[in-house]
Design a protein that fits this description.
167 residues; mainly beta; 4-stranded antiparallel sheet; 1 helix; 13 strands
Length: 167
């Protein structure tokens, strides 16, 4: 299987600070000790506005890309971007699903070559894909990488990677 390489572009420190101004770190509590281990519980999901929307601005659905080196940029409407670990109402951070179905919505989004996390609040990246047909989809995660309720996810798009022309 071909490897996928990523280069990510970050927001400026000033932009990131503006996005999370007034943020309060999410606290944690330790459950009381139990005599026997409890069955694994699903994580609670952070509420999202029903009109929240995330989209892939580039490439467009159905695009044929003539390079293996592909810039992808993300956008949101009625929803903000905040780095992972920062809990601010109506915000989250992007996860790019590459050639992968939507993961379980009640668990943290996996982190691997098919589930790429943008936990610093990035809104674009460059990925390298082998020639062929690929799908891309965005899924927003909360401070703990868990999808919101309702989930804030883009339409799944299909792109065709032709690769760099040979001479």
């Amino acid at each position: 299987m071909a490897s996928i390489r990523f280069r990510t572009l970050w927001l400026s420190a000033a932009a990131a600070t503006c996005m999370v101004s007034g943020a309060v770190a999410q606290g944690t509590t330790n459950p009381p000790a139990a005599a026997a281990p409890a069955p694994a519980a699903t994580a609670s999901r952070t509420p999202a506005p029903r009109d929240a929307y995330v989209y892939i601005g580039w490439p467009l659905d159905g695009a044929t890309v003539n390079s293996n080196h592909i810039k992808v940029w993300f956008g949101t409407r009625n929803f903000g971007v905040a780095p992972a670990g920062v809990s601010v109402k109506n915000t989250g951070h992007h996860h790019l699903l590459i050639d992968a179905p939507v993961p379980p919505l009640d668990q943290p989004i996996p982190s691997d070559r098919n589930h790429v996390h943008f936990g610093l609040g990035q809104t674009e990246t460059v990925i390298d894909l082998p020639p062929g047909t690929h799908t891309l989809q965005l899924l927003m995660g909360d401070a703990d990488h868990i999808p919101h309720d309702p989930p804030v996810m883009s339409k799944r798009i299909t792109i065709y990677v032709r690769g760099a022309p040979t001479h």
